[in-house]
Each structure stands twice: as structure tokens, then as C-alpha cells.
């Protein structure tokens, strides 16, 4: 079975379910990341740490807070999440993409650099057995005429 990531699905993936059993700090973290508020992210991370929460918990679509920050291309938030222990190699529940897959797919090269510096793997495969580098090399090969 083949899954694709449509723009509509990406938009849905950014939304936290309204009714959920999420702890207050985790819900606040999702909201802060979605809104891009560094102050609110710092506050939510402090609360999460004090409560012993898990920075790598997932939403209904299998995404972690880091996946959302990658999609939003918000480098200061990404750096905060990584410093707080976010796993750069966590795969999403839809395509099996890691954060590096997502960054390279969207052309967020500075984000990819931050992830690589944080130890993100080049060799993780998604559900189509593609590595993060495969997501870049395919379009480049098409542009230069290689097959």
C-alpha cells in the first residue's frame, strides 16, 4: 500500500485534536509550536520537564512536536526541542518519515543541517524504503536528466 503526503493532509497534521487526553503541558506545546511562539514553547518545555512528560509523544497522525516544528521551518523551536531531548530519528505514523526526511522534502536545508549536527540518521528508510537523501537525489536527477 502506498501513502502520499498531500498538502491537505499536512494541514490536518498540524492540528491537535480538540478533545483528547493530552496533558495540559503537551497540548500547550503543540499549540506553541503551531503558532511559532518561542516564549510559549520554552514555557511548555519547562512544564513538560517538571511533570516528567515525554517530548516524543505523538498526535493522532503519529507526528511528534519536532515533526511539526520541521514542517513550520522554525529553527529556534527545533533547536529547543532537540536540546530538550526530541528524537530526530522518530518516524511519523503516515509515511515513516523522520525529521530529516521531512526537512529535505520541504527544502529546509538549514533545518537539515541542524538535524545532522544533532545526530539524525542518513540511513533511516521510510515505508517506501527511501532514505532522506533519496528524497533529494530523485528530483535532482530529474533536473539534470539522469534516470
Short characterization:
This protein is 54% helix and 0% strand. The protein is mainly α and 147 residues long. Helix 2 runs parallel beside helix 4, helix 5 packs parallel to helix 7 (109-117) and helix 6 runs parallel beside helix 8 (132-144).
Summarize the structure in words.
The protein has eight helices and no strands. It has helices spanning 7-13, 24-35, 38-51, 65-72, 75-83, 99-105, 109-117, 132-144. α6 packs parallel to α8 (132-144). ANK repeats lie at residues 61-93, 95-127. This is Palmitoyltransferase ZDHHC13-like. Keywords: ANK repeat, Repeat. Residues 1-22 are annotated as: Disordered.
Uncertain runs are: 1-26
Which radius of gyration do the C-alpha atoms yield?
Answer: 15 Å
What percent strand? under 5%
Total domain count: 1
CATH topology: Serine Threonine Protein Phosphatase 5, Tetratricopeptide repeat
Report the strand count: 0
| Mean pLDDT score | 81
> What is the 3D form?
globular
CATH class: Mainly Alpha
Largest sheet: none
**What's the order of the H and E elements?**
HHHHHHHH
Structural class by SSE content: mainly alpha
* Separate helix tally: 8
- Portion in helices: 40-55%
Q: Which CATH-level-2 architecture?
A: Alpha Horseshoe
Cα distance spanning the termini: 24 Å
CATH H-level superfamily? Ankyrin repeat-containing domain
Region (Disordered): 1-22
Organism: Camelina sativa (False flax)
InterPro entries: Ankyrin_rpt, Ankyrin_rpt-contain_sf
ANK repeats: 61-93, 95-127
Amino acid at each position: 500500500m502506498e501513502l502520499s503526503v498531500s498538502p491537505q493532509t499536512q494541514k490536518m497534521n498540524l492540528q491537535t485534536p480538540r478533545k483528547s487526553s493530552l496533558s495540559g503541558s503537551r497540548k500547550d506545546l503543540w499549540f506553541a509550536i503551531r503558532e511559532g511562539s518561542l516564549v510559549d514553547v520554552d514555557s511548555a518545555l519547562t512544564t513538560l520537564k517538571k511533570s516528567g512528560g515525554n517530548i516524543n509523544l505523538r498526535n493522532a497522525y503519529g507526528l511528534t512536536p519536532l515533526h511539526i516544528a520541521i514542517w513550520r521551518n522554525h529553527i529556534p523551536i527545533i533547536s529547543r526541542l532537540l536540546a530538550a531531548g526530541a528524537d530526530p530519528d522518530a518516524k511519523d505514523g503516515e509515511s515513516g518519515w523522520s525529521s530529516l526526511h521531512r526537512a529535505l522534502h520541504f527544502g529546509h536545508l538549514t533545518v537539515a543541517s541542524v538535524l545532522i549536527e544533532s545526530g539524525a540518521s542518513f540511513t533511516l528508510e521510510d515505508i517506501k524504503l527511501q532514505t532522506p537523501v533519496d528524497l533529494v537525489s530523485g528530483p535532482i536527477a530529474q533536473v539534470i536528466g539522469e534516470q
